[in-house]
Every structure is written in C-alpha cells, then in structure tokens.
C-alpha cells in the first residue's frame, strides 16, 4: 500500500509503541534498533483515516529491515544461492532467512 504525502500536520498524539528493526552492523556487531514510534490522530475531516503512525524514509512501510540493509542483502544474494547468502548474512551482518532473501529478490525483479 503506497503512502501518501501528508497534506497537513497533526500534533494530537494517539499513543506510542515500540518498533524494532535491523540495520547494517556497526564495528562488526549486529544492530537491532528499537524506536519509540508515535501514532497520531488525523484532524482532517476529509481524510478516511482516523489515526496514522510516523513513517521514515529509511524504513519501508511495515519493514523489519532498513532500506540500506535490504540493498546489502540483495547485493550479496545476487552472486550466491539463497541458502549460502542466508548463512553468510546471519553470521556477519544480520539475521536473515532464506525466504526473506527470496521475497526481496522477487520484489526487485521487474514484472513482465
């Protein structure tokens, strides 16, 4: 589901929740970020949504991995099998299973 650009800002907070996602390693250590995300009320009467959550450019909608981590996964996965890529990535970069790699490759491939 594509996200729309906001037509007006909202300052009315609905709630907070924790959002966890993986990023590229820092100094050889795997990184899991825990972000305190806000859920806001939409005050626009013409909007079909009553609430919405903060979104970030570096993180896909409902994503569990940053865009730059996804790119690194794809770069490694293009040259080896998904099983080998999963082993290499999980050992050195981030916990990634074979099905995640296959799903990322399917999303990247253009539809014909």
Structure description:
With 112 residues, the chain is an alpha+beta fold. The chain has one domain. Helices cover 29% and strands 27% of the residues. It is built from 3 helices and 3 strands, in the order E-E-E-H-H-H. A 3-stranded antiparallel β-sheet has the order 1-2-3, covered by helices on one side. Helix 2 packs across helix 3. It is elongated. Pfam families: Zn_ribbon_ISL3 (PF14690).
Q: Any descriptors?
A:
112 residues; alpha+beta; 3-stranded antiparallel β-sheet; 3 helices; Transposase_Znf; Transposase family protein
Short description:
With 112 residues, the protein is an alpha+beta fold.
| Global Rg | 17 Å
Major beta sheet, strand line-up: 1-2-3
Shape: elongated
Low-confidence stretches: none
Helix content: 25-40%
Topology record:
Layout: E1 13-26, E2 29-41, E3 51-53, H1 67-77, H2 82-92, H3 98-108
Antiparallel strand pairs: 1-2, 2-3
Protein name: Transposase family protein
Domain Transposase IS204/IS1001/IS1096/IS1165 zinc-finger: 10-44
Organism: Aceticella autotrophica
């Amino acid at each position: 589901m594509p996200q729309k650009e906001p037509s007006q800002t909202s300052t009315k907070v609905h709630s907070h929740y924790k959002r966890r996602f993986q990023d590229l390693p820092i100094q050889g250590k795997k990184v899991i970020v825990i972000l305190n995300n806000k859920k806001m009320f939409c005050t626009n009467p013409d909007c079909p949504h009553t609430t919405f959550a903060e979104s970030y450019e570096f993180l896909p909608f409902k994503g569990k991995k940053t865009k730059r981590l996804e790119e690194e996964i794809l770069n490694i996965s293009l040259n080896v099998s998904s099983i080998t890529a999963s082993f290499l990535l999980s050992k050195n970069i981030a916990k990634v299973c074979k099905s995640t790699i296959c799903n990322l490759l399917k999303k990247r491939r253009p539809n014909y």
